[in-house]
Amino acid sequence: MREQLISAIKKAIREVKQWPKKEVQIFHHNDSDGLSSGAILTRAFERAGFAIRRFCLEKPYPALLQKVYEQEGGIIVFADFAGRIAPILSDLNRGRNLTLILDHHVAEASTDPKVHNLDPCLYGLKGDRDISGSTTCYLFAHTLDPDNIDLAYIAAIGAVGDEFFVDGCLVSENRDVTLEAVKQGKMEIKGQAVGERYYLNTDRGQVPCDEFGAYLDTLGAAGYYQDGPDMGVRVCLEGTTADSDRMLADLKSVQAKAFEEELQRIQSGALKKTDHIQWFKVENRFQPMGVKMIGVFCDAIKNSEHVDSTKYVAGFQIIPDEIPGFGPIGMKDVKISMRVSAKMEADIRAGKTMGLDVLLPEATNKLGGFSDACHTLTAATTVAIGKEEQLIEEMEKLLKAEG
Ligand SMILES: [Mn+2]
């Protein structure tokens, strides 16, 4: 299993080394795992003598992929997403670029030999248990050049950030990278009541890895349109600084203010209600924060007195037509995030109420939208601006059909 993954990585590396163009475009996710992945790949490709163009994405939107694949002869790397859309990337690529996918989400095999899907899920590892995006990138980096062993601690940061623990402990590949970082004196593991806690030894003292991950998450999400991801990647490689602390504090206050204002709107009746759903639009009032924030906000209110605990919570945020550093991609979409109260969570777990992983993507498909991350209790998709009300109606239809 692991050996087959490593030999697939070796094959991809051979092609990278033979490729005429010595420039790599790295597309990575904006959470702590994605930023760690971006940091590892940036350092590894730099060391191998490649020029780097790095882009941080909230999602690999179809409109963006279309633009990316207008080129020919490039080396394109996706990290911490895209494992599942390897067939789509294959159709877009048609042998014209060397594409590498270093993801750990549920994956589908590539159909273009020039698209290397190195997602460990295709090799018997569990992406929600054994290996994070960052650890996948680390395996790649370490196979590319054993000197990259010093990046093991960054892989551990991403693994802790994604919170895939077994009885409170990192396991399998994620554990191996952490033990390597401990051996190098860059981390310490301490036992606690349940499982373990992981610490980074930094120039500014010991920092719990989970706190470091939350720091990165804020830079990447609240700071998405304000160079937060660049700072996040720098912080992974060089540690936090007074500058990064200041950026974090500013972002937190922007977020607190935006959330407070939105809550006031909801209190004064901005929430619309149908039979099973309560919903609202923030339009672009969360700008300049990223669209992750609509999910964070729904999370913040889902169990509050301001919402009805018997109805699904849905919020819409307009997606700005801009990828930082990449430019406009011609997108006119809105993101919907959905959450449920603790009461509904119990009903969904008991099978009495439809889970969001079925409800939202089915309704989204009817309107030609894009579904990506849909789980039973949290879900998000995108539809064209103006279709918000229709999407709610489609969900109501599904719920009524279900009875
Ligand atoms: Mn991840």
Helix content: 40-55%
Classified by CATH, the class of the largest domain is: Alpha Beta
Tell me what the CATH architecture of the largest domain is: Alpha-Beta Complex
Largest sheet: 6 strands, mixed
What is the overall silhouette?
globular
Give me the strand/helix succession: HEHEHEHEEHHHEEEHHHEEHEEHHEEH
pLDDT < 50 runs, ≥5 residues: none
State which percent range the strand residues make up: 15-25%
- Tally of domains: 2
- Tell me the number of helical segments per DSSP (H or I, 4 or more residues long): 14
Strand tally is: 14
- Separation, N- and C-terminal Cα atoms: 45 Å
Quote the average pLDDT: 96
CATH topology of the largest domain: inorganic pyrophosphatase (n-terminal core)
Q: Report strand order across the widest sheet.
A: 9-10-11-12-14-13
Bound molecules: manganese (II) ion
> Structural class of the helix and strand makeup?
alpha/beta
Radius of gyration of CA atoms, rounded to a whole number: 21 Å
